[in-house]
C-alpha cells in the first residue's frame, strides 16, 4: 500500500504498445481524490488505454504508479474491487428484470447484505414498484440511471465513465451530472472519457490526449489560458459572410458560431487585436475571456482519427 492521501491516482511514465505501435507514450498524471477528470482527444488517441492502465485494468509496458493507494502493477485485484465502470453501451441484461440485474452485479462484487443493498438501491432509484420489469423495456434515461446505480452498488471509490451521456436527452443528462456531482462531493473520484463539449464542461480537470501523448492537462477553467487563446465576441449584420472571411485570416485560429454571435479566437493576441481594429465598423468586436467552450472547439478541431494522418 502506497500512502498518498491527496491523490486518488498518481502515475508516471505509463507506456503501452500494441503490435509494436506505441499507443500511450510516457504518460504522467495526478488525479485528486473526489475530482471529476475529463479525458478528451480524437478517436483512437489512447484515452481508454490510458484510463485502463491508471486503474490497474491493463498492465503497462513501462511506468508505475498508485491508484486508490494500491500499486497499479502488483495490486490490480484490490483496485478492480474498488472501481465502478460504466461503458457507453448499456451493458446490463435486457431480458433480466431490474432487480435481477442489480442482484447479479451485487453478487459479482460479493456485496455484503446483498438483498438489502439491492432493495435500498431500487428505492434510491425510485424503481421499487418497477423492480420486476425487464430492464430492456426502460427508456434511455432510466437505463442510464440503472446502469449508474449498478456500477455503484459495491460502493466503489473510483468511477470510470465512457461518454456517459451519449444519446441521452438533455433533462436526463442534467440529472445524470447532478448525480455524478453528488458522488464526487462524497469523495468518489470520476474519470470521464468523452468527445462531447457538454460532458467536458462538467469536469473539474481536463487532459487532452492526441497520438498517445498528453498535450495539455490541468484545472478545466485554466485550460483556455494554458492554450493561450484570445477571443473576441462579434455581433452585427452579415455575420455569415464575415465568418467565411475571418476563417481565411492568419490571425484567426477558429471561429465558433453561437446563434447570431461569433467567437473569434487566435493564439497570437497582438495579431488578433490588429485584426479586430481593422475589421471594426459594421460589426461590434468585444474582447472576451476565452472559456472552456472555445478551448474545447480549438482542441477538438484537429480531431481527425489518430493514426490515419501524417502525424501518426
Ligand atoms: N487490445 C488492443 N490490441 C491492439 N490495439 C489496441 C488494443 N486496444 C486499443 N488498441 C489501439 O490503440 C489505440 C488507442 O485506443 P484507445 O481505445 O485507447 O483510444 P481512445 O482514445 O479511447 O479511442 P475512442 O475515443 O475511439 O474510444 C487505437 O489505435 C486502438 O486501435
Automatic annotation (TrEMBL):
One of its GO terms (molecular function) is ATP hydrolysis activity. Residues 9-236 form the ABC transporter domain. SMART domains: AAA (SM00382). The keyword Ligase does not apply. Gene3D superfamilies: P-loop containing nucleotide triphosphate hydrolases. PROSITE patterns: ABC_TRANSPORTER_1, ABC_TRANSPORTER_2. SUPFAM superfamilies: P-loop containing nucleoside triphosphate hydrolases (SSF52540). It comes from the Bacteria. Coiled coil: none annotated. The keyword S-adenosyl-L-methionine does not apply. Keywords: ATP-binding, Nucleotide-binding. PANTHER family: ABC TRANSPORTER G FAMILY MEMBER 20 ISOFORM X1 (PTHR43038:SF3), ATP-BINDING CASSETTE, SUB-FAMILY H, MEMBER 1 (PTHR43038). This is ABC transporter ATP-binding protein.
Amino acid at each position: 500500500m502506497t500512502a498518498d492521501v491527496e491523490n486518488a491516482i498518481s502515475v508516471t511514465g505509463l507506456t503501452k504498445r500494441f503490435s509494436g505501435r506505441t499507443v500511450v507514450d510516457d504518460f504522467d498524471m495526478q488525479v485528486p481524490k473526489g475530482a471529476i477528470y475529463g479525458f478528451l482527444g480524437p478517436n483512437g488517441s489512447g484515452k481508454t488505454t490510458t484510463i485502463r492502465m491508471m486503474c490497474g485494468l491493463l498492465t503497462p509496458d513501462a511506468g508505475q504508479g498508485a491508484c486508490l493507494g494500491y500499486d497499479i502493477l502488483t495490486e490490480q485485484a484490490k483496485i478492480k474491487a474498488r472501481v465502478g465502470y460504466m461503458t457507453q453501451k448499456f451493458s446490463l441484461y435486457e431480458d433480466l428484470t431490474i432487480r435481477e440485474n442489480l442482484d447479479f452485479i451485487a453478487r459479482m462484487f460479493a456485496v455484503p447484505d446483498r438483498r438489502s443493498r439491492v432493495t435500498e438501491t431500487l428505492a434510491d432509484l425510485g424503481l421499487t414498484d418497477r423492480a420486476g420489469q425487464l430492464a430492456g423495456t426502460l427508456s434511455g434515461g432510466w437505463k442510464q440511471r440503472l446502469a449508474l446505480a449498478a456500477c455503484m452498488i459495491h460502493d466503489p471509490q473510483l468511477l470510470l465513465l465512457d461518454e456517459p451521456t451519449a444519446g441521452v436527452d438533455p433533462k436526463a443528462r442534467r440529472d445524470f451530472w447532478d448525480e455524478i456531482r453528488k458522488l464526487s462531493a462524497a469523495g468518489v473520484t470520476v474519470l470521464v472519457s468523452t468527445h462531447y463539449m457538454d460532458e467536458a464542461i462538467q469536469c473539474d480537470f481536463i487532459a487532452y490526449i492526441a497520438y498517445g501523448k498528453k498535450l495539455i492537462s490541468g484545472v478545466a477553467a485554466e485550460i483556455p489560458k494554458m492554450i493561450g487563446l484570445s477571443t473576441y465576441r462579434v455581433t452585427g449584420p452579415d455575420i455569415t459572410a464575415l465568418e467565411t472571411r475571418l476563417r481565411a485570416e492568419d490571425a484567426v485560429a477558429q471561429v465558433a458560431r453561437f446563434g447570431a454571435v461569433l467567437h473569434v479566437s487566435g493564439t497570437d493576441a497582438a495579431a488578433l487585436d490588429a485584426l479586430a481594429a481593422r475589421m471594426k465598423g459594421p460589426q461590434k468586436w468585444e474582447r472576451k475571456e476565452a472559456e472552456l467552450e472555445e478551448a474545447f472547439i480549438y482542441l477538438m478541431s484537429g480531431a481527425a482519427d489518430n493514426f490515419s494522418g501524417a502525424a501518426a
